[in-house]
Specification:
single chain, 246 residues, mainly alpha, 0% strand, globular
């Protein structure tokens, strides 16, 4: 099981760096297939997200790919929302959590599919700081309840509403995960619902994958990056569907 978790961590870390996700949308279904229950899987996912998002955001910032402006306001809202969401999980049934996760993946896939492709020279739109904070707050609550970083919700919004180029949206999405996942981890620690041993195997291994994922993101075109992101949503939907119905 340890070797399986390490390999899963490297894979999820690569996906995190490449797609700007915390990794929960991939890791949670995989852990369910490996035999973990949904709430334990969510706890492990939160640990992995803290490691990969902090390291990945640092690498993106060093490369000049991270826009801190809107990210700080969205992230501060995400921190509060993530803290609240960490408590909510314990009061929601496994069936409801899986149903919400399933619906969220479909929403993200639909929203991204109909968004336009913006290049790096496009001028991004701006929203009032309060609105950005509220977007982060709601995203954080929903995300940490499901054990995901929130970027699968946020990235389609940044592309569709604020005209972000996909690669910049992905970088801001991963930065948001720093706030939401740390808050989620703090709140989950207070309830004692984190599997530390297995979580550390996955989280530390994911750092190797993050480096590879960010390198891949710089290599591919924006169009292919978007196609790959939509394929990721389809993959997660199929894995979750398999666990629910089979």
């Amino acid at each position: 099981m340890v070797m399986e978790l390490i390999l899963v961590g490297i894979f999820v870390g690569t996906m995190s760096g490449f797609f700007g996700i915390g990794g929960g949308m991939i890791l949670t279904p995989i852990l369910l297939v490996l035999g973990f229950d949904i709430k334990t899987a969510i706890g492990i996912s939160i640990m992995q997200m803290v490691f990969s998002s902090i390291f990945g955001s640092y690498l993106n910032y060093k490369k000049g790919l991270l826009l801190l402006g809107e990210g700080l306001f969205i992230g501060s809202g995400g921190f509060i929302g993530g803290y609240i969401g960490g408590y909510v999980t314990g009061y929601v049934s496994d069936a409801v959590l899986q149903g919400l996760f399933f619906g969220l993946l479909f929403f993200a896939l639909f929203r991204l599919f109909f968004s336009k492709n913006y290049d790096d020279s496009c001028q991004t739109k701006s929203l009032p700081k309060v609105v950005l904070f509220l977007i982060g707050l709601l995203t954080g609550i929903f995300a940490m309840t499901l054990g995901i970083g929130g970027s699968i919700i946020l990235t389609p919004l940044l592309v569709g509403m604020l005209c972000y180029p996909i690669k910049k949206a992905v970088s801001v999405g991963l930065f948001f995960v720093v706030f939401s996942s740390i808050a989620g981890l703090i709140s989950r620690l207070s309830t004692g619902t984190i599997d530390f041993e297995n979580g550390l195997y996955v989280a530390v291994a994911s750092l190797v994958g993050v480096v590879l994922g960010i390198w891949l993101k710089d290599v591919v075109t924006s169009k292919n990056h978007k196609i790959a992101l939509m394929a990721l949503y389809v993959f997660a939907i199929l894995m979750l569907a398999k666990n629910i119905w089979l």
